[in-house]
Structure formats: structure tokens, C-alpha cells
Fold:
Amino acid sequence: MRLQGKRVTIFGLNRSGVAAAKLLHTRRASVTLTDKRASKALSAEIKALNEFSEPNEIRKYLGEHPTECIADADFIVVSPGVPPDIPILCEARARNIPILAELEVAARMCPAPIVAITGTKGKSTTTLLTAALLKESGKFRSVCVAGNIGVPLAAEVQNLTDRDIVVIEASSFQLESTVSFHPLVSVVLNLSRDHLDRHGTMSNYRDAKQKISENQTAADWMVLNGSDASVKDFAASTMAKVVYFTDEVVSANASFSGTFRDGSELFAQGDGVREKICDVADIPLPGAHNVQNVLAAATVARILGVTGTQIQSALRNFDKSHPALVHAFEPVKTIEGIEFINDSKATNVAAVKAALESIEGHRVVLIMGGYDKGNDYTPLCEIVRNRVKVAVMLGAYTQQIEKTLANTTDIMKAKTMMEAVQIAYKHASAGDVVLLSPANASFDMYTDYKARGVAFKDAVHALQPLK
Structure:
């Protein structure tokens, strides 16, 4: 990508925007930055910019997006948090100015092969598992983790070579503005209703996800969830070689290529050869949903030549302390036989369903609610009826949840996290699980899901025994 002398406007002065600005500035592009937030709210970001450029070397339009910010742009870079349909970007399209995702720009300059992982739930966990398995193989100089997991690819590409490999967590927000993004291996974990406040329709959301394989060729690979009918359909629109993972048993003589579960063991199968990968007991993370995450990661690993023995070793030594795993089905404390689990990262219905499916043999007191992204809560009805003894509603947008779940369990309301935890504790008994699994974003009450998870943990630790 030839950048010297190019005039580039970057929308969104967050981590992705700052990383893109640094990368483009280093490649001698003329950079303009714009953000609707005022400079007072961006002091840390402006400080980061000043560490690699002179104060006036990069133009900044803060507090608004004036037409001047795109007046002479050769192309535009959008951070994931910037909706593509805001008026100024509509104006840019009318002027035929290309609009590219930060992921797109960084990937064009990335010398290392890319494994890209997307899905409605499980992306972060599968990204970290995949990276751990690839690292264990010793085949690569380094294994870089980037993308939606917290480190923009633009911040890493300068340090990479063709002897490295990058594992990217790719969100629909990042993928929707890609053009030539071309991973060696693409992975689609699952697909269910989410982010419709941004994408408008399920079809648009699906189209954004499907862009992960749009530019793959017959020399590439696509890994699909064979247990998810909506994901299996992706095979019809890719030129890549398709392999599957599934938690369903596969016949030994089936023409199946990929990984699967058979009882308490995980296997890989291809070209008529079956090989054990590991035992379910080797999986280092709790929850039945993590079996599928391991299967997906193992499928990528097998494609890239990682052995079953290396996979087992990597799982045994897997580091569970990564920040991306905090607030994801995280055990907090057991009080008088009641286990408290923080699943604040469960910001959609599919994630809540997976969490409830993972709690077998226990009744659940469920805390949920928050900023509704256009969810359909109907898929929760049966499992809530069977496993949830009380649902505690917390947040500004719980009316639809209450209406949908009205005849499935007892429903109570809380105004604060402390109150929600106290209500849950009061209605739980020894052997029960109190689960924070909101199904919604946190923006009605908190800055992000992390702050919400911290509030839950603080409330749990502040509980006084009632019994």
C-alpha cells in the first residue's frame, strides 16, 4: 500500500484510530483526525499522538465532523465504533472517497499470514486458544494476537515478518468496511441476532460477518461450525477449502473433515484418518460452550500442522489470566454453598443461552438487562423455564425481556447492581448459582461490560451472610 503523500482522514480517536494514525504517519501519509468528542475527553489519546508527531503535524477536528475534514482526503479510515451511515460518511461516499476499516488498512501492510476469527459469541476465547496452540507448535517466529480483543492490528504490523502469524478477533464492525481483507484461515464460530441497533437487519449483520472470506481463494481455508445451520451456509459462498468443527458425533466412515466431540474425547478427522486431540477434561476453561471454542481452535491448529500432542500440552499450560477472559463466565465466590459467576461479557442472547446450558444440575438466579441492541429473547424461554428459579432485571431497557420471559420464571427488578445481587442472594439456596449474564450492552449504566463486571464482583464481595 503506497502511502507517501496520501491525504488520509481517520474517524475515531480511540485505540484503533491512534494506531492507524501512527502507522500511516510513519509511512509518510498526511494524516487528519476527527472525533465528535471534545479535546477535554481525549487528553490521553492526544498525548499518545504527541509521542510520535509534532503537536500540529496531524490535523485534528474535535467536537464535530466538519465537511473540511474530508475536503482533500484520498481515502478515509474508520474506527470500529464509528457507524458507517453518519452524515459525513454518507457525504464522503457521494464524493467517491474510499472508506476503509482500520483492519483493512493494517492488513494490507501485514507481511504475516492471518487467521481471522468471527462469530456472535466466543471470539476472544477462541482467538486466545488458537494463538496458544500455534505458539506451542514452534512453527512461527512469533504468534501475534490482535483485533477486537484489544490490540489493533495497526499497532502490530511494523513488528511482523512473513515468519510470524497473526490471530485476529474480527467483529462485524471491523469487517463491514473491509474491501480486500484476505486471511489465510477464516473462522466463523456461530451466528445469531446481535448488534441490530447498528446493522439494522439480520441480513446486514450476516453480510458483515461473511466479508471475512470474501477474498479467500482455493489456497485458503475456512473453518465453520457444523452444528450451526446458519453458519454452514457460508460454505456455499467461499472459494476456500472448508472444514468443520462440531460437538456432535461423526461416523468413522463419514466424508467429514475437521474436529468433533465423541463423549468425553475430542477428535480430528480427514481423508479417512481419525486422531484423538484431547479429553474434554483437558479443557482449561469452564462451561460447555468452551468445548466448541477448543474444537474451533484445534481445527485451525490441525490445518497449520500442530500435532495432537502439542494441542494437549498447550491446553494444559493455557494462561487463563488474559484480560479478555475476565468477565467471561468467571467464577467469583461461593457463599454458603451459592456460587456467584460473572458473565458480564455476555452481551447477546446466544451468550446467555450458552452460559445457562453450561450450568447443569443447579438452579440459577439470573441477573440480566442493560442497553438493548435489538435482541429477540425468545430463544431463552425454554432454558429459563427449565433452569432459572428467579430472573432479576437490571437496567433501563428490560421491558421486552420481562414481556418475553413473563411466563417462564419469577421476575424481579433492581435499580442498582448492589440491589440486584442482594435480591439474587436472598432467593438463592445452597447448590444454586447466581449468574450475571446480561444479554445486553452496558451503556445504560456503565462505561463498558468490564465496569459492569467489576460492579457485580464488588457487590458479591460486599454481601453479608443472611442465613
